[in-house]
Design brief:
single chain; mainly alpha
Length: 48
């Protein structure tokens, strides 16, 4: 029978998962809020 506590102690996450996690958290892609703020700045600058 499996001892789940012992198996959890031996668990090592896959390197691919660590790489994917780093890529996700370090991603600086603009979201819709950033795009809208930039558009509003441009509209404000054109009106002045």
């Amino acid at each position: 029978m499996l001892n789940f506590e012992e198996e959890l102690k031996k668990f090592q996450p896959s390197l691919e998962i660590d790489d994917a996690e780093d890529a996700i958290y370090n991603n600086t892609v603009s979201d819709i809020t950033d795009i809208l703020l930039e558009a509003l700045k441009n509209v404000g600058a054109e009106q002045q």
